[in-house]
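Because discrete structure vocabularies remain unfamiliar, it helps to consider an illustrative case, giving the amino acid sequence and backbone structure tokens:
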Amino acid sequence: MPRRFPATPLVLLGFGFLLLLFLVGAGSGDDIQRVHVTNFPPLQQVAGTVSVDGTIRHAVPLHFKEIVVPPVNPGDVSRLIPVGTLEADGFTSVVLALNGQSRGKIPLKSGIVGAILVPDEDPIQRIFLEEGIPQFPIEIKTVALTGVSPYVASALEQSRVGFPRYRIWLYNTSDRTVSANLYAYLTN
């Protein structure tokens, strides 16, 4: 007659071994841990290796330096000073700061320095350049430039970003040329 092994001791031994593996695997929090990734609808598929190297940045600082801005009214679109393009794709907001210094003599006529950011979309740019109407703009202005000091600055202005790119235009309503700096801090 064949000899039967009792199942109870084998089952207990198996559970004991699994418990030991679990306790060894539940070591310190510094150990590599298993992560389960769930794919979402087709727009958010995760494929390949998923890894994070270092700190994840949620902001990018940009600086448009030493832009010479002669006296020009913000309504005179053909004379506004083009600065460049702000690439805002992937960000939800921008914090702007604008400062400047009067070149030469201190201005006799007080005025402000300002920046207008207009979405870089063909229909919006066409209306702005042909009709002088900025649609969906982001704007920032300095305090008035007076005869007391050659320096001028704005407060920090935070705005929501609604387009991937903005063209930047500067103006200066004082009677002297200004050297301006525009700071943009794109954030999420």
Summary: The chain has a mean pLDDT of 84. The chain has two domains: 8-44, 59-187. Residues 7-25 form the longest helix (19 residues). Residues 59-187 form a domain with the Jelly Rolls fold (CATH 2.60.120).
